[in-house]
Amino acid sequence: MGMRRLGMASITALCIGAAVLAGGCAGGNKKAESAPAQSEASSVRPETKGSDAVMTIEFWHYYNDAQKQHLDQLVKEYNDTLGLERGVAVEAYSQGSIADLTNKIDLVLNGTTNDVEMANIVLAYRDMVVNTVKLHPDRLVELGSVVPEADLAQYNQAYLNEGYIDGKLYILPVAKSTELLLMNQTRLDEFLDSNPQYREESMESWEGLERMAEGYFQWTDSMTPEIDGDGKPFIGVDNLANYFVAMNHAMGSDIYHYDGNGTMVPDLDKDIIERLFLNYYEPFTKGYYGANGRYRSDDVKQSYLAGYIGSSSSVLYFPEEVADLDGNMVPVTTGVYQYPVMEGTSPTAIQQGAGVAVFNRGQEENKAALDFIRWLTIDRGFELATSMSYMPVDHNGMTEEQKQQIDDARVLKGIETGLKQSSSYQMVYGFDFENSYDVRTGVDACFSEALSQGRMEFEEYLERGMSMDEAAASMEYGRKAEAFYEQVKAIFEE
Fold first, then answer.
1. Are strands 355-358 and 255-258 parallel, antiparallel or unpaired?
2. End-to-end CA distance of the chain, in Å?
3. In 286-333, where does DSSP find H-type helix?
4. Which residues on neighbouring strands pair with residue 427, listed in sequence order?
């Protein structure tokens, strides 16, 4: 069935009917409408020499603050060196946000704003490019036919594969992240020292992680013997939609395919979706996993959680201090671990991060744009990626000299672990069909609400005097999983 945009009322109606079983869905999932951001250009254009003409290459992106400053420095370096030699000046413009950038591209492609020319280079995600290839097939440069094989071979193949659409290459990677298990290592060491039956290796699988989480809950519960059942959750998941994608692929489901007309057709596997749901839902309802604040890093900072599964780039924001029992902030160290693997499945994790697409502006400008992209992503790819705590996209990993250039030990751990994971896991990317944003947010919202409602239901059983086992038996987990599958199915087919 073809996809169309899902509104708040639509998503809510789909989920309310099953609210009693799996928690339903809270709130809408429409993108917030925002006014177009004021484009801000890098002040990096070199001085012209005499009457020599300088070819201007325009680059639209959505970087802001420190990320924009790092990019501006690199653009200035290019313009002052290779750009100057080649008579090329790159002008980089921040459009504000991903939504602002996408909206501007759409306006130009659809001829809505006649006084704005399309940029030569844009930061791009796969779903945006898929739609552009479908509606405006001649506007994008097919990179596989113009980028030398030797240059393509410089990229990590998993990252490069994401840029192929219908067998043709339209996106080159810039900087990537994946998802990792980030831990308050100080707290984890305290737990392991007090509970030698558990080891760090237990966190390599979801099953081992759940057993550790149960032990952590019991250990923290025992710290307040006067209060029964007040143990703390061990970890939380930052992005439930990413978990849904990764676990589907880990168990062999592609989730959807395209028919001969290019229409998305769902391929939802009921057993797989129910298994991935229960894998996280059951321990969450029992208090072993959790979520409290807006971000899981905030939960770690308040010592509500000992860690979380989130973007490798978020390690830069992992708390260096957390609240102790008295509310005082105490220093902690950061542990970085690979994404857990569900027993009997392929090690799988999601890869994220925009690439670059090139709009056709004539042979000379296209060549100049590609020369800059190669310089930015290969010659200076390490500097660009690590300045944002992302992973570089070449296939060579990091040299010892490069490792020494990263001052923040957390960032170094995140990049090293992420690169190791990318080389040994099946790396997958998110949805790429039209209006996939709405489906992602719909799945995430229903999953999140099911978790919240499930935890409250479990606590109600405990308040009635039930034991943990009795409360678990009363949850009817199988019915909750079936209800969640039906919600997801409806979201995909609406």
1. unpaired
2. 8
3. 296-301
4. 349
Output the average pLDDT for the chain.
Answer: 89
The SS3 of residue 339 is: coil
* CA dihedral of residues 288, 291, 292, 297 (deg, nearest 10): 110
Token pair 């070449």: residue:
394
Report the 10 Å Cβ neighbour count for 427: 23
Q: What are the backbone angles phi and psi of residue 179, rounded to the nearest 5°?
A: -110, 140
Tell me the pairing of strands 172-173 and 355-358: antiparallel
CA distance 194 to 221: 14
Q: Which of 44-53, 219-228, 368-377, 428-437 has the lowest mean pLDDT?
A: 44-53
Output the six-digit token pair for 371.
Answer: 């020369």
Which residues, in sequence order, are CB contacts of 295 under 8 Å at separation 6+? 238
Tell me if 436 sits within 8 A of 266, measured CB to CB: no
Query: Residue 392 in 3-state DSSP?
Result: coil
Q: Secondary structure of the chain: what % helix, strand, coil (to 5)? A: 50, 15, 35
d(CA 273, CA 279) in angstroms, rounded, equals 10
pTM of the entire predicted model:
0.88
Neighbours of 205 (CB within 10 A): 17
CA distance 175 to 400: 20
Write the burial class of residue 65 (CB in 10 Å: 0-12 exposed, 13-18 middle, 19+ buried). Answer: exposed
- Please, which residues have CB within 8 angstroms of residue 75's CB and are 6 or more apart in sequence? 42, 44, 59, 90, 92
What is the C-alpha to C-alpha distance for residues 252 and 255, in angstroms, rounded to an integer?
A: 9
At residue 118, does pLDDT exceed 70? yes
SS3 90: strand
